[in-house]
Amino acid sequence: MTTVPDLAPRPNAPRCLLTPDGRLAGGHVPALDEDALLDAWRAMLRSRVADERCFSLQRQGRLGTFSPVNGEEAAVVGSAWALDPARDWVVPQYRELPAMLRQGYPLERAMQYYRGDPAGGHVPEGVRVLPFQISLAAQIPHAVGLAWGLRHQGSDGVVCVYFGDGASSEGDAHEALNLAGVRRAPVVFLLKNNGWAISTPVRKQTAAASFADRAAGYGIPGELVDGNDLFAVHDACTRAVARARAGDGPTLVEARTYRMGPHNTSDDPTRYVDRAELEERRAADPVARVRRHLAGRGLADDAAEERLVDELRAEVDAAFAAAEAAPAAGAAALFDHVYADPPGRLRRQRADATGEGA
Predict the structure, then answer these.
(1) SS3 sequence, the chain?
(2) Which residues are identified as catalytic?
(3) pLDDT tens-digit profile of 197-216?
(4) Mean pLDDT to the nearest integer, 259-274
């Protein structure tokens, strides 16, 4: 008789500094000062507002397929706030809009991207962020190459690359992590373990106690944190950034969170997510956790939050209106922003497609 192995990961408690009820654990003093914390809170709320608005716009046929951040705000914002946008880089997958905005990527440009306009992939000069990446894990080798290049240039810049538990099973992820360890590239690998690779649960992806445990195989440090805890993610990433900046190489940070919505707007999670489990996970909502902490410190209340949400809705709506009003992309957009100096064959193809002179 063949024995089927139990694929459920062994218990491994993530590090937590902010409890679900908003209290600090173990007398921890957050590294985020009051202004930075309120800025991070604003970013988390903006993300939630953008999710709601973009989901509605997609259902109206005014946006393309959209992947919400819902449930992962602390993992994205906590890590982004450990970076210095003036010298560090963000390399996203497709669920890291708050980190991209923090780096200076315009919200209007993101809306253009969601509408299928190639202009949305054009990153403004001086903004240290790479475009959204839909192909799973394809951005991770690029992040390592970027970090390695920064080191050779004498820069102390650090690269933070985001990917999910599903992407971590791709060969690109393993190869990039191995190369980063060998070359001591200044990279923070932020693995957001949201419980699902579309509809595949984590227990069917790995028999390891945690994804962070894989770091030992690459010869680099790994750390497991509560991905719904803004302070725990920020603390782990702050230390990882300092380590990379000092020349001590990469770190793998697993932020264990939970995807509280669909994989994207083409997904129906009710077919595979247990409703009771989802409701249980909602109790650890990262946005609600920070709200409780701020309320406990007298830094936020319901009225202030309502005013802020109204302001953010107006901001998101204005960005979408500007994107919707932008001229529609024509045939030339297929060729723009591909080469700084296009080869002759592409010049000829562009001329044929647009009717313009080569």
Answers:
(1) CCCCCCCCCCCCCCECCECCCCCEHHHCCCCCCHHHHHHHHHHHHHHHHHHHHHHHHHHCCCCCCCCCCCCCHHHHHHHHCCCCCCCCEEECCCCCHHHHHHHCCCHHHHHHHHCCCHHHHCCCCCCCECCCCCCCCCHHHHHHHHHHHHHHCCCCCCEEEEEECCHHHCHHHHHHHHHHHHHCCCEEEEEEECCEECCEEHHHCCCCCCHHHHHHHHCCCEEEEECCCHHHHHHHHHHHHHHHHCCCCCEEEEEECCCCCCCCCCCCHHHCCCHHHHHHHHCCCHHHHHHHHHHHCCCCCHHHHHHHHHHHHHHHHHHHHHHHHCCCCCHHHHCCCCCCCCCHHHHHHHHHHHCCCC
(2) 259, 263, 272
(3) 999 999 999 999 999 999 99
(4) 96
